[in-house]
Amino acid sequence: MDKHLNVIIKISILSAIAFLLMVLIEIPLPIFPDFLKLDVSDLPAIFGSFAIGPAAGVVIEAVKNILHAILKPATAGIGETANFVVGAVYVYTAGLIYLLKKNRKHALLGLVAGTIAMSAVAAIGNYYVFLPLYESILKFPISAAVSMASKINPAIKDINSLVILSIVPFNLLKGIIVSTVAFLFYKKLSPILHK
């Protein structure tokens, strides 16, 4: 089989799996407001990033979110854009570090760096772009998000504390969960991904 066709097929399959995971598995966590739900749809993208390369991981994130925006539109593309940006930073960072030396140490370093980068970008993106877009386009006020979050954590009083005490910890936890699963299962799946 042609090498490029092989890569396209792998990216397509991983994108479809990522989309299904995004649609089928959304877990609300009682320590976070309802609008933050855990999903593991970054797993196929991180596997693709490790097996094919960082750009492949970003493409998988893009296809997953485009499919979601078309087939399950609910946030005028804002949620999908946020999910793409944050997920792409995670898988690209992790994949780039793993690409330097493909061993367990670099996989772990990549996953840790990806989690930190994802959390930082989620904080900045939500503060400056995504929460303001929800407010202006979907008429979902930032104050409503703050109010929802403050019911769980009374220390949340404004957008600053919402980002620092809710969005950052959520993304760190998500990164830790996805990274742990990826670290434990990538080597077992890599023979399939490299065929």
Summarize the helices and strands and which ones pair or pack.
Elements: H1 3-24, E1 27-28, E2 37-38, H2 42-51, H3 54-71, H4 78-100, H5 104-137, H6 142-152, H7 159-193
Antiparallel strand pairs: 1-2
Helix pairs in contact: 1-2, 1-3, 2-3, 2-4, 2-7, 3-4, 4-5, 5-7, 6-7
Description:
By secondary structure, the protein is an all-alpha fold. The protein is built from seven helices and two strands. The chain has a two-stranded antiparallel sheet. β1 and β2 (37-38) form a beta hairpin. The longest helix is centred in the C-terminal third of the chain and has 35 residues, at 159-193. The mean pLDDT is 92.
Based on Cα principal axes, name the global outline: globular
Distance between the termini: 10 Å
Query: What share of the residues lie within helices?
Result: over 70%
Supply the helix-strand structural class.
Answer: mainly alpha
Biggest beta-sheet profile:
2 strands, antiparallel
Which sequence of strands runs across the widest sheet? 1-2
Q: What is the alpha-carbon Rg in Å?
A: 17 Å
Count helical runs.
7
Overall pLDDT level = 92
- What's the total number of strands? 2
Order of helices and strands: HEEHHHHHH
Strand percent estimate: under 5%
Low-confidence stretches: none
List keywords for this structure.
195 residues; mainly alpha; 7 helices; 2 strands; 78% helix
